[in-house]
Amino acid sequence: MSGSEPNGADRAEPAIPAAPGVSPEKPEMWSRERVVTGWAQLWNLPNMLTLLRILMIPLFWYLLMYDGGGNAAARVAATVVFVLAAITDWLDGWLARKQGLVTTFGKIADPLADKALTGVALIGLSVLGELWWWVTILIILREVGVTVIRFVVLKHGVIPASRGGKAKTLFQMVGITLFLLPITPEMDLLWWIRIGVMAIAVILTTLTGFDYIHKAYWTRSDSKSDKAARKAAAAAPVVSGTGPASIGEPGSAHGDEDGPRQPGSTA
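and the corresponding structure tokens:
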């Protein structure tokens, strides 16, 4: 053996070629998903933004109800807090998906914080007599009902957000923002614009609520049908042996005319 030849311990094992049509497995660094465990499930940026939004709700309530809701500066400050909290609702979801930091805490806390912010704003406006109570009750019942249905149906499948749902959220946020601002009946244009926006939000809230119930029902039904089919397939008896010979199989009773014959048979 020459001195330049590496020994067995130093030899690199030859790479095993991938099967045709199958791409080699990518190293772990290629994956955009990150395993989030331990305290990292809570102490990451998206979840911190969710917690910040929850902490902003008492401050928002205080500013909205300050001086009976008649202080213009406090109403503007409450509107700013509401808008910033709404922005964090979008930002934490975007960061969680981009950085692969989707956690169980975020899945539960994020929608609850969103509904809490919207509910507090609606209740506050109704307490001040600036928004009809039936609008507040309708929107809150819809949001709470959809949240409960989402958790119930989660084991059967995920219902993706629809365009109608996104439009509903947009009109709700814009409508609530306009009602939070110190707009008086003397401001005719803004007064009627905020009523129109809230009316559209109510219509979309109702329609998307029924649509979500419909999708949840069929998601649950399809999941049960799939489970029943798999259960029936698993319980089906397994036939031992090779089974009956198919038509045209060589050596079978119905073999082709040109197929092989058994030894000793006559032509």
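(Above: one complete record from the training split.) The first helix runs from residue 45 to 65.
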